[in-house]
Design a protein that fits this description.
Blueprint lengths: L11 H4 L8 H21 L3 H16 L3 H11 L2 E11 L5 E12 L3 E8 L3 E6 L2 E6 L4 E6 H4 L4 H5 L9 E9 L2 E8 L6 E9 L4 E8 L4 E11 L17 E4 L1
Parallel strand pairs: 6-12
Antiparallel strand pairs: 1-2, 1-11, 2-3, 3-4, 4-5, 5-6, 7-8, 8-9, 9-10, 10-11
Length: about 250
């Protein structure tokens, strides 16, 4: 079980770190909206079926989750995640220059396993303190401190703690199709990417993540088969370099 720090959601300092919740103002807004809607129905004498359709349409438009709300809910409530992914790298002209696929698992805070299966076998493991990059073809392992890797690893970003606004500025992008988008811009200049776009379904499930680097290149991850809060074996997040490989510490 993940233990979260004690937070006073009544203070302005901690308010941004609290999980999203419905406020009293939201409830009042819904009541007033319903009363207004009833008066419109009486005046216009609309049919019952059309009224139901119109109410659902209008109500959905004012109550659907925002991208930032979905992101905060994901960071707070998704303690473990398992998913398959496809990765596409695009150049400045949005032409595809590389594709890959694999599977990922993570457990907050800071533990993850990111497996590339095609076209080359690679493994990235975060044990909560360090992050290990293992390239089987090169017989090489690169080790970094986890804090230093957050700016360069999508796995480290997704598996971080719930205080995402400590490291990123968040901007609401809006609804496109059935996906709610939010943009996260790193607060530090040392990051290898200039912004991240995260897309969530209307049910709050992470579906897409785009990393845009400082050279105009974009790396797009599309997630499928997403499972949240399943118990994951602790061994997934441990890594022991195979015998005979080169280990490089950064």
């Amino acid at each position: 079980m993940l233990l979260l720090p004690d937070i006073d959601c009544g203070t302005s300092r901690d308010a941004l770190n609290c999980p999203p919740k419905r406020s009293g103002l939201f409830i009042i807004t819904v009541i007033l909206f319903f009363a207004w809607f009833q008066s419109i129905v009486k005046i216009m004498k609309l049919s019952e079926k059309f009224c139901v359709f119109l109410f659902l349409l209008l109500f959905t438009s004012i109550t659907h989750a925002t991208g930032i709300g979905s992101l905060k809910s994901f960071m707070w409530n998704a303690h473990t995640v398992r998913a398959d992914f496809s990765q596409t790298v695009l150049d400045k002209s949005r032409r595809i220059v590389q594709t890959a696929s694999g599977a990922m698992q993570f457990e907050r805070p800071g533990k993850f396993r990111w497996i590339y299966e095609k076209p080359y076998e690679q493994l990235i493991v975060g044990d909560g303190e360090r992050i290990w990059f293992y390239d089987r073809d090169l017989a090489q392992v690169t080790v970094r401190k986890l804090d230093a890797a957050i700016g360069s690893s999508p796995a480290a970003l997704l598996a971080g703690n719930n205080d995402i606004e400590k490291n990123f500025h968040l901007l609401e992008v809006g609804l496109q199709g059935n996906i709610e988008w939010v943009e996260a811009t790193p607060k530090t200049r040392e990051s290898t990417f200039e912004r991240v776009l995260l897309g969530f379904t209307l049910e709050g499930i992470l579906r897409v993540m785009e990393l845009h680097d400082n050279f105009g290149q974009a790396t797009v991850f599309e997630f499928s088969g997403v499972e949240q809060n399943r118990k994951l074996p602790p061994e997934l997040f441990k890594f022991h370099p195979p015998a005979g490989v080169d280990v490089i510490s950064e």
